[in-house]
């Protein structure tokens, strides 16, 4: 009986440790950045690991009221590409942060903790 209680306490301690590591890891995600370009470098978007757009550069030659739709498309493309590029960095960071706390469970995706 006492063995099960000790196991349960140990598991609760690991979960508390995991929670604090995940919180710390999520805070650190703000320091992981990725940029992507579209339009041959005329639009550049920079995002962080907290999935926030933190920078957007647009070549002045693209700023033309008559070609607004093309500019919008290039911005969307650059932002989406930057978010796509940062995804593996987010996963790697979260895995590293929780390494040794949880057993390696195939298929366990800690990305769900981010939402």
From TrEMBL:
<keyword id="KW-0963">Cytoplasm</keyword>
<dbReference type="GO" id="GO:0003677">
    <property type="term" value="F:DNA binding"/>
</dbReference>
<keyword id="KW-0175">Coiled coil</keyword>
<comment type="function">
    <text>Binds to DNA and alters its conformation. May be involved in regulation of gene expression, nucleoid organization and DNA protection.</text>
</comment>
<keyword id="KW-0238">DNA-binding</keyword>
<protein>
    <recommendedName>
        <fullName>Nucleoid-associated protein SAMN04487995_3374</fullName>
    </recommendedName>
</protein>
<dbReference type="InterPro" id="IPR036894">
    <property type="entry name" value="YbaB-like_sf"/>
</dbReference>
<dbReference type="GO" id="GO:0043590">
    <property type="term" value="C:bacterial nucleoid"/>
</dbReference>
<dbReference type="InterPro" id="IPR004401">
    <property type="entry name" value="YbaB/EbfC"/>
</dbReference>
<dbReference type="Pfam" id="PF02575">
    <property type="entry name" value="YbaB_DNA_bd"/>
</dbReference>
<dbReference type="GO" id="GO:0005829">
    <property type="term" value="C:cytosol"/>
</dbReference>
<feature type="coiled-coil region">
    <location>
        <begin position="8"/>
        <end position="35"/>
    </location>
</feature>
<comment type="similarity">
    <text>Belongs to the YbaB/EbfC family.</text>
</comment>
<comment type="subunit">
    <text>Homodimer.</text>
</comment>
């Amino acid at each position: 009986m006492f063995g099960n209680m000790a196991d349960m306490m140990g598991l609760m301690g690991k979960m508390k440790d995991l929670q604090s590591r995940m919180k710390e890891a999520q805070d650190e995600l703000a320091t992981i950045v990725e940029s992507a370009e579209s339009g041959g470098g005329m639009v550049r978007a920079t995002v962080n690991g907290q999935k926030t757009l933190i920078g957007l550069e647009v070549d002045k030659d693209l700023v033309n009221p008559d070609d607004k739709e093309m500019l919008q498309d290039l911005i969307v493309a650059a932002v989406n590409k930057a978010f796509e590029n940062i995804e593996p960095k987010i996963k790697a960071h979260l895995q590293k942060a929780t390494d040794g706390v949880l057993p390696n469970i195939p298929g366990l995706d800690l990305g769900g903790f981010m939402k």
